[in-house]
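re the bet — no i am not wrong, look at it urself. input seq straight from the record:
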Amino acid sequence: MKHPVCELPGDDRARTNRLLDAADIAFAYDPVTELHADFEAVVMEGLLADQHVALYPPAGHTYPRKG
């Protein structure tokens, strides 16, 4: 069983920067169709949203178990 690795703030920043750089490259040109434009809008909204996602499971709870 693999033990979880603690991520440092610098690791998070580096990963975020790589993700944003890749998005800049992927969306460097105007969308070809309306569907592409809609897709780009959804992806960019997700990338630029300033929201923290709640962790699962919440503190004090565990993952569901079989049986």
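see?? The chain has a mean pLDDT of 81. told u. also The helical segments are 9-26, 34-48. so pay up
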